[in-house]
Specification:
single chain, alpha+beta, 22-stranded antiparallel sheet, three-stranded antiparallel sheet
C-alpha cells in the first residue's frame, strides 16, 4: 500500500485525512460493467478524463449525498443524519476542509472528495443580484454531488486498476493498518467482476419520439429578437438553447455504453429518478496546485460526409471572420474570468484557435492558463469561471439575464459543469454539453447556438441539431436495438 506510514506521519499534524492507495495490473477493463455493478449497489458516479493520460474514476463509498435548491444545501450522510445549510458555498467548503488531504506525488489526480455536477442555475449563488425566473418543472437541483472517500480508478495507459481511500490522521497507525487489510480484499472483489460474464443492461424505451422543443420558425423568430439586443448594444453574443425532448422508460445506462471513446470527458451519474450521460469535449476549468486553466471552445461546423467535404468545412471554419471574432471574444472572456483569482500578470493564452474534430462536429479550441496563490480554493476557482462564457455569452451576466427571458425552462446540467473537487484542493470540471439526461420519464438532449449580430435563425437551428445529433442517434439506436422501435 502506498504511501508508506512514515511518509504519511509527516502530514499528521496538519491534515485531518491522508490518501492511501493499492493497485494491480488489469489488462481487460470494462467501464460499463463496473458502472452497472456499482449502480446495483447504490453508488453512482463514473467519470473518465482524457488529458495527458486517461483515467477512469468510480465512486465506491458515499459518505454523503449533497443536493441544493436556491435556498439551501442538504447533505444526507450515510450514517443517517442530515444537515441543512443556507449558505451553499460555505457548506461545500466546510466539507472539503473537514476531509482536507495533502497533495502527494504518485497518486492519481482524484483520490477523494466531491464528484458530480453543478447545474447552470448554480450561477445564481455566484453572481450578486442574479435571479432566474424560468420554470423548473422537473425540480432539477442547483447541484448534485457525492462526497466519496474511496475511489476506484483505472489507468488506461498502464493498465492498472486501483483503490484510493482517505483515512483519518487521528490514530493514523491503526487506520493505516485497517486500510492495508481491507483495501486489497476490496480490490480483489472488484477485479473478480471482470472475470464474470456481463449481465444485460437495463433497457431503454422511448415512449414518444425525440423532437426539438421549439420549431425552426419559432426559434428563428427568437434569434431575430436576440439580434436586436445585440444591435442595441446590450450584449455581443448569447447562447440560445433548443433541446430535443421525449419521454422514456428504463435507463440511460445503455447510452453510456455507447458513448464515443474519443470524448475528452465521459460521465455517468444517477441519483433517484435523475440520470445523465455526457460525452463532453470541453473543459471548464482545471486546478492542479497553483496552476489553473480554462479551455474555450467556440466555432462549429458539422463533419463532412467524406474527406474532401471535411477539409472544406474545416477551412471554412478556420478562416470565417465571424467564427474567428466570436472565438476571440470568448478567449478574452476566459482571460477575464481567470484574472479574477489569478496572480497579477500570470494569465496567458497558451493555445489559440486549434481545430478540434469530434464524431459529428468540429470546433475551434484555445487554452488560457494562469497561476493562483496557495490560499485560493478550488471552489473560488470554479466560481471565477462559472458558467462558461461559451454556454452563456458576453458580457456574461447580461447574457444570462436574457437567456432567462428567451428560454422557457431551467437548463439543469446543460451549460453547468461536472467532474471532481479533490479534498487536496485540486479540481477538474468539464462543461455540461453533448449530453442526455432524464428526470423520471422526461428525456432531454440539450444544445444551443451562439447568436451574434449576423446570425441567421435557420442556420442556428441546424447548429443545435448538429450538436444534438450524436446523442440523439445513440439514444434512438439503443432504443431500437432493445425494443425494435423506429422513429
Amino acid at each position: 500500500m502506498q504511501p508508506t506510514l512514515s511518509t504519511l506521519t509527516t502530514f499528521q499534524a496538519h491534515y485531518p485525512y491522508v490518501p492511501v492507495m493499492v493497485k494491480q495490473q488489469l489488462a481487460e477493463f470494462d467501464a460499463v460493467k463496473l458502472t452497472a455493478y456499482l449502480r446495483q449497489r447504490g453508488t453512482s458516479g463514473a467519470l473518465t478524463i482524457q488529458h495527458q493520460q486517461t483515467i477512469s474514476y468510480f465512486n465506491d463509498t458515499t459518505v454523503a449525498h449533497l443536493t441544493a435548491t436556491s435556498m439551501q444545501l442538504t447533505s444526507e450522510f450515510s450514517d443517517g443524519h442530515t444537515t441543512i445549510q443556507p449558505d451553499i458555498n460555505a457548506g461545500l467548503q466546510t466539507l472539503l476542509t473537514a476531509y482536507q488531504t495533502p497533495r502527494i506525488a504518485g497518486l492519481p489526480p482524484f483520490t477523494g472528495g466531491l464528484l458530480g455536477y453543478f447545474s447552470y442555475e448554480y450561477a445564481q449563488r455566484l453572481v450578486p443580484h442574479l435571479t432566474f425566473k424560468n420554470a423548473n418543472p422537473h425540480k432539477l437541483p442547483l447541484l448534485d454531488l457525492v462526497l466519496t472517500t474511496r475511489v476506484i480508478f483505472y489507468d488506461h495507459q498502464h493498465h492498472e486498476i486501483g483503490l484510493t481511500q482517505l483515512i483519518p490522521t487521528t490514530n493514523l497507525a491503526t487506520a493505516y493498518e485497517a486500510a492495508a487489510q481491507q483495501l486489497p480484499k476490496r480490490l480483489a472483489e472488484i477485479m473478480a467482476i471482470f472475470a464474470t460474464p456481463a449481465e444485460p443492461l437495463p433497457p431503454l424505451r422511448l415512449t414518444s419520439a425525440l423532437k426539438n422543443r421549439q420549431t425552426q420558425a419559432h426559434y428563428a423568430t427568437k434569434v431575430d429578437q436576440i439580434r436586436q439586443h445585440i444591435v442595441a448594444g446590450d450584449i455581443f453574443q448569447l447562447i440560445y438553447a433548443n433541446p430535443q425532448v421525449a419521454t422514456m422508460t428504463g435507463s440511460l445506462l445503455p447510452v453510456y455504453a455507447n458513448l464515443p471513446a474519443t470524448s475528452p470527458y465521459q460521465f455517468y451519474y444517477q441519483h433517484g429518478d435523475f440520470e445523465t450521460v455526457v460525452a463532453s469535449p470541453e473543459t471548464l476549468v482545471t486546478k492542479q496546485g497553483t496552476q489553473i486553466a480554462t479551455y474555450p471552445l467556440a466555432g462549429t461546423r458539422r463533419r463532412g460526409r467524406d474527406a474532401a467535404e471535411d477539409a472544406k468545412l474545416a477551412h471554412e471554419l478556420t478562416t470565417n471572420p465571424k467564427e474567428i471574432a466570436e472565438h476571440n471574444m470568448l478567449v478574452d472572456l476566459g482571460r477575464n474570468d481567470l484574472g479574477r483569482v489569478a496572480k497579477f500578470k500570470s494569465v496567458r493564452v497558451t493555445n489559440l484557435r486549434q481545430l478540434l474534430k469530434f464524431s459529428q462536429v468540429m470546433h475551434l479550441g484555445s487554452r488560457v492558463a494562469a497561476e493562483v496563490d496557495e490560499q485560493v480554493t478550488a471552489l473560488q476557482t470554479l466560481a471565477a469561471t462559472f458558467p462558461a462564457g461559451t454556454l452563456s455569452g458576453a458580457p456574461k451576466v447580461r447574457a444570462m439575464e436574457l437567456i432567462d427571458e428567451f428560454e422557457t425552462e431551467t437548463r439543469g446540467i446543460y451549460g453547468g459543469c461536472f467532474g471532481y473537487l479533490d479534498c487536496n484542493g485540486d479540481l477538474d470540471m468539464a462543461i455540461g454539453i453533448r449530453l442526455a439526461y432524464r428526470q423520471r420519464e422526461h428525456l432531454v438532449i440539450p444544445a444551443g447556438a451562439g447568436i451574434v449580430a449576423d446570425s441567421i435563425g435557420t442556420q442556428e437551428f441546424k447548429e443545435c441539431q448538429n450538436k444534438e445529433r450524436a446523442l440523439a442517434q445513440t439514444v434512438t439506436q439503443v432504443a431500437e436495438v432493445a425494443h425494435g422501435l423506429t422513429h
